[in-house]
Specification:
7-stranded parallel β-sheet, 242 residues, 16% strand, 7 helices, alpha/beta, globular, two-stranded parallel sheet
C-alpha cells in the first residue's frame, strides 16, 4: 500500500489529537493543524516516538489565505492529501438569544462552518483529479438533533455541516470523493471548558472518550473506497439502562 496523507484540523487536543495518533498508528502520515504550535509539536513528538510521520502546520482556519498556504506546504512536504478530518471547533459560554454576542457568533461561524469549507476547497481539486479522497467533518449531536443547551451559533453551524456533507457527496461521489458528517454525543475533552458550567468527574465518566471518536474516524477512513458513510451518530451508552 502506498503512503497515505491525512490532514487534520483541531489536531492539538481532544478528538483531533486522538484521531491523528490513531491514524499514524495505522500507517498514515499526518499533517497537524491548529492554532497552538507548541501543542501540535507535542502531538507530533508522540507520533514520531512510535515511528510515525507528522508535519506541524499551525493554522487559523478562519483565514482562507493561510488555509491555501497550509495546503501547499503539506503537498510539498508530504504529497497530495488523501483525506481530511475537520475537528477544529469553537463555542461560547453565552448561548441564549438574550445574552448572545454577535462578535462571538461570527467567530463561531468562521471556525465551525467557513473553516471546513475553506479546507475542503483547498484539497478538492487534487482529489477530483486523482479521483479519490475522504472528508470527515466532526460535527456534534447538536448538528443532528436540536440541542438548545449547545447554543444558537454552535447549533446552527454544526447543523449546517449536514447539508454541506450531503451536497458534497451528491456532487462529488462520481469523482471518487466521499464525505461523512460525524456527530458525536458528549465527549470528555478540553472542549467542555467552553460550557457555561463545566461538567465534573462523575459526569465525564459517563461520556465518550476522544479515543472512542478516533476509532469511529478510522472506521470511516479505512472503509473500502466504494463505501460512502454519509452520516454517523455516536453517543455514550445510557448508564443503568437494562
Amino acid at each position: 500500500m502506498s503512503t497515505r496523507t491525512l490532514w487534520l484540523t483541531g489536531a492539538g487536543s481532544g478528538m483531533g489529537r486522538a484521531s491523528a495518533v490513531a491514524a499514524a498508528r495505522a500507517g498514515w502520515q499526518v499533517a497537524l493543524s491548529g492554532r497552538r504550535r507548541e501543542v501540535l509539536g507535542e502531538v507530533a513528538a508522540q507520533i514520531e516516538a512510535h515511528g510515525g510521520t507528522a508535519l506541524v502546520v499551525p493554522l487559523d482556519v478562519t483565514d482562507p489565505e493561510a488555509v491555501a498556504a497550509a495546503a501547499a506546504l503539506i503537498k510539498q512536504e508530504l504529497g497530495e492529501v488523501d483525506a481530511v478530518v475537520l475537528s477544529a471547533g469553537l463555542n461560547a459560554k453565552h448561548r441564549a438569544w438574550s445574552d448572545q454576542d454577535l462578535t462571538e457568533f461570527t467567530a463561531i461561524t468562521g471556525t465551525n462552518l467557513l473553516g471546513p469549507v475553506a479546507v475542503i476547497d483547498a484539497v478538492l481539486p487534487a482529489m477530483r483529479e486523482r479521483r479519490r479522497g475522504t472528508v470527515v467533518l466532526i460535527s456534534s449531536f447538536a448538528g443532528w438533533r436540536t440541542s438548545p443547551s449547545a447554543g444558537v451559533a454552535y447549533s446552527a453551524t454544526k447543523t449546517a455541516l449536514g447539508p454541506l456533507t450531503e451536497i458534497l457527496n451528491l456532487q462529488q461521489n462520481h469523482h471518487g470523493i466521499r464525505a461523512c458528517h460525524l456527530c458525536p454525543g458528549d465527549v470528555d475533552s478540553d472542549f467542555l471548558e467552553q460550557r457555561p458550567e463545566v461538567p465534573g468527574d462523575a459526569d465525564r465518566a459517563l461520556m465518550l472518550t476522544a479515543e472512542d471518536v478516533a476509532r469511529t474516524v478510522m472506521f470511516v477512513l479505512e472503509s473500502p473506497q466504494n463505501v460512502v458513510i454519509n452520516e454517523l451518530v455516536v453517543t455514550p451508552a445510557k448508564a443503568g439502562q437494562a
